[in-house]
Amino acid sequence: MKNPRRNYFRLQFIILGAYFDACRDLAIAKGYSHEEVMGELIKRFENAYTCLAAYTCLAERLMLTVILYVLCGGWFPEWHKRLHESIVRQISGGGLERILLEIPEGIQEGDEESEKEKLVFDLRILKFVPDPA
Amino acid sequence: MQDTERETYMTLKKWVLETYFDFCRDRAVMDGWRHGEVLGAVEYHFDCASNPVEQIMTDVVRLGLRANWYPDTEKNARSIIQSRIDTYGGWEALLSDITEEEAKLLRQDIKSLKLIA
Fold first, then answer.
1. What does the pLDDT look like over A79-100, one tens digit per residue?
2. What is the pTM of this model?
3. CA angle at B6 for the pair A21 and B87, rounded to the nearest 5°
4. Do B29 and A31 touch (CB under 8 A)?
5. Would you say the ipTM is above 0.85?
6. Quick one: which of A41, A32, A105 has its CA closest to A67?
7. A55 vs B: CB within 8 A
8. Which chain B residues contact residue A23 at CB under 8 A?
């Protein structure tokens, strides 16, 4: 059985919320560094995808990797490289086209903009996808 | 002092975090800005809220994003919040002026940020 997919905006909201909580509860309360906070977050969210049920959704996995990649800000070379490679792996060889098929066109209920366009927009800014000619 | 035009703490928090995300994407990953510079840009972006409740709420989120990684400037950020909350009449006054849902979330955040005991 396939889990219902969380959309890009929802995932961003969840991960940013978790990041804020980690700043509060891990950094302020326990003295974690910024890199340690990101490491915890990556561990928590990326590992969720090794479980079979969630792994069936390629779109959600790509979205998650993109969000974590952005939050790493290029500040932590090891995480930056790992997440960059993961995104390239996921979108290469027709991967992005297959993933985009999983995402409906247009603006979904409760959203202010198109989820698909936002994901492509972010990938384009991050230079994973070339600018339209 | 309840203001019906005001945005909720949940909405303001979402906006600040989304702005942080956008700056991470555009300025940090792509332009090589340091984390402190990204935070500075977020702070500047939200430094003119339309009313005191919104201002204090965005201040709290911005303080959370700094974590405790910038002790040199944290003191100043905290004293700005303190003076704004003093002007308002204290945390309890503010917490009683907002909805229960907001108060619960805000109280949790300001407690963790050690703004209240």
1. 999 999 999 999 999 899 999 9
2. 0.93
3. 80
4. no
5. yes
6. A41
7. no
8. 64-67
> Could you tell me if A49 and A61 are in contact, meaning their C-beta atoms sit under 8 angstroms apart?
yes
Q: Which amino acid is at A39?
A: G
Angle at A53 between CA A49 and CA A57, to 5 degrees: 70
Q: Which long-range contacts (CB under 8 A, 24 or more apart) does B57-62 make?
A: B57/B9, B57/B12, B57/B13, B57/B106, B58/B12, B58/B15, B58/B16, B59/B84, B60/B106, B60/B109, B60/B110, B60/B113, B60/B115, B61/A20, B61/B12, B61/B13, B61/B16, B61/B17, B61/B109, B62/B16
Q: To which H or E segment does residue B12 belong?
A: helix B9-23
Contact yes or no for B29/A127 (Cβ under 8 A):
no
- What is the C-alpha to C-alpha distance for residues B51 and B71, in angstroms, rounded to an integer? 28
Q: Which positions in chain A touch B40 (Cβ < 8 Å)? A: none
Dig out the tokens for B99 from the structure: 């909805």
